[in-house]
Amino acid sequence: MRLRFVGKDPESGDHGCPAVWVDEVTKELVIQGMTADAGTIARTVRDSPLPVHESVVRLPQRMVPLLRKALDGAEPE
């Protein structure tokens, strides 16, 4: 697995969260974020079940440019 670091929230200071990477082999996105609160999780499971091996994370709006950059890097060649 080769992860390419795209960036982290510029307002996170010394903390590493949230952050985004692209797996250079699979072109999958790897996201580190804040675990969503119980209300958010309760709402999301109405649309999609949440298996025990998955989680819901919340990213601030200011991460949108980094996600776009990551998505561009995940496009097939």
In which range does the helix fraction lie? 10-25%
What is the end-to-end distance?
18 Å
| Whole-number count of domains | 1
The total beta strand count reads 5
> Roughly what is the average pLDDT, rounded to an integer?
89
Order of helices and strands: EEEEHEH
What is the strand arrangement across the widest sheet? 1-2-3
Q: Which term fits the overall shape?
A: globular
Q: Report the major sheet.
A: 3 strands, antiparallel
| Assembly status | single chain
| Low-confidence residue ranges | none
Return the structural class. Answer: alpha+beta
| Beta-strand residue fraction | 15-25%
DSSP helical segment count:
2
Q: In terms of topology, how is this protein built?
A:
Elements: E1 3-8, E2 19-23, E3 29-32, E4 34-35, H1 38-44, E5 57-58, H2 64-73
